[in-house]
Amino acid sequence: MPTSTYLSNPSLTVNAVDLSDQCTSAILTVKYDALESTAFGGTSRVYTAGLGDHELTVELFMSYAASETYATLAALVGTATTVVMKPTSSAIGATNPSFTLTGTYLEALPVIDATLGELSSISLTFRGGTYAAAIA
């Protein structure tokens, strides 16, 4: 049985704008290319970390109001930006670390994704960038 759990209510900041109130889902994956470093005489393959290839996928409600989803993201398509995620909106600490992608790339922005009778939402993927985790 788990000894520690938390209710998912993440904090999302994109380009210094808080989009937490529009975010319904977030997956941050920290990944490094595996480079083989096996030498002669080795009996098993050995790997070392290569370049980071991190990815953040978020689901957001689409809003066209000032300082909301579209206004924040439209100018970022095809550019690098900074994205910060935290498990909750509480202060950064050991139980609420901050995860930052600096220089992460936003390749595409679906400007309209609508279905009759449903709230409009979009899925975005931020790729690459320098990953950092902080507890203070």
What's the level 1 CATH class? Mainly Beta
- Counting DSSP E segments of at least 2 residues, the number of strands comes to 10
Mind telling me the C-alpha Rg?
18 Å
Largest sheet: 8 strands, antiparallel
Helix content: under 10%
Helix/strand order: EEEEEEHEEEE
Number of helices: 1
Distance between the termini: 29 Å
* Number of individual domains: 1
Strand content range: 35-45%
Q: Estimate the global geometry from the Cα principal axes.
A: globular
Question: What name is given to the CATH topology?
Answer: Elongation Factor Tu (Ef-tu), domain 3
Catalogue the unreliable spans: none
CATH architecture type:
Beta Barrel
Structural class: mainly beta
Describe the structure.
- With 136 residues, the chain is mainly beta.
- It has one helix at residues 69-73, and strands spanning 11-14, 17-18, 23-29, 32-36, 47-52, 55-61, 79-86, 98-106, 121-127, 130-134.
- β1 (11-14) and β2 (17-18) form a beta hairpin.
- The two termini are 29 Å apart.
Write the layout of secondary structure elements.
Blueprint: E1 11-14, E2 17-18, E3 23-29, E4 32-36, E5 47-52, E6 55-61, H1 69-73, E7 79-86, E8 98-106, E9 121-127, E10 130-134
Antiparallel strand pairs: 1-2, 1-7, 3-6, 4-5, 6-9, 7-8, 8-9, 8-10
